[in-house]
Every structure is written in structure tokens, then in C-alpha cells.
Amino acid sequence: MDQLILHTRQGRYETEATIGEPIVQLAKKQKIPWGHACERGICAQCRTKVLAGAEFLNDITDAEKLRLRKAERQEGFRLGCQIRIHSPGKVELAHKPY
């Protein structure tokens, strides 16, 4: 797999990208601090800015369309619980809660 770079308030983490696994789950497995509560796209505590590799991610989900404003989505914001890597490539994300 390719590289996944995650930026949090605690620092920068590099790990291996896993196809099909939500970013929140991947962060939990790797013990990377990535705020979350519901994991269903409701609370938005896992709000994430896509810095690079959007083309390797799944499409924006209905939950993201309901929770994030259109302007946020256009700026590259997603929900970490909804983001899944769908093909190999370098992805860089930053945890950006409200």
C-alpha cells in the first residue's frame, strides 16, 4: 500500500494506507489521536481537511452532505469516519475539528 500522512494537534503521523477502512478506524488501530464520537457522520468531531490525494478517496457520502456545508466540502473538508481510501496513492489528511 501507499503512504498515509495524518496531521493532528499532537503531531504528524505516517502510516500505511489501508484500502476500504475508514480513517477513524485506521487511526484507532494505529493509536493515532483522531477525535471522534459517533462514527456515523453526525457529530463531526472527526472533521478532516484533505491536503493531498483526494483522487484516491471515496466520493463524499450522504452523511457528509448533511453535516458539512457546501462551502466546507468545496474547501476539501470531509468527515474522518466517512473517508475511505479506494485506490493506492499518497494521501495526506489533517484533523480539523470545529
Instruction: Please give the share of residues in helix.
Output: 10-25%
How many H/I helices?
3
Question: What value does the average pLDDT take?
Answer: 95
Biggest sheet character:
5 strands, mixed
Strand adjacency order, main sheet: 2-1-5-3-4
Low-pLDDT windows of residues? none
Which class best fits the helix and strand makeup?
alpha+beta
Strand and helix layout:
Blueprint: E1 3-8, E2 11-16, H1 23-29, E3 47-52, H2 62-67, H3 70-74, E4 77-79, E5 91-95
Parallel strand pairs: 1-5
Antiparallel strand pairs: 1-2, 3-4, 3-5
Task: Describe what you observe in this structure.
The protein has 98 residues and is α+β, with helices and mostly antiparallel strands. The protein contains 3 helices and 5 strands; from the N terminus they run ββαβααββ. The radius of gyration is 12 Å and the shape is globular. The N and C termini lie far apart (31 Å).
Give a quick rundown of the structure.
This protein is an alpha+beta fold and 98 residues long. The protein has helices spanning 23-29, 62-67, 70-74; strands at 3-8, 11-16, 47-52, 77-79, 91-95.
Defining key terms:
98 residues, alpha+beta, 5-stranded mixed beta sheet, globular
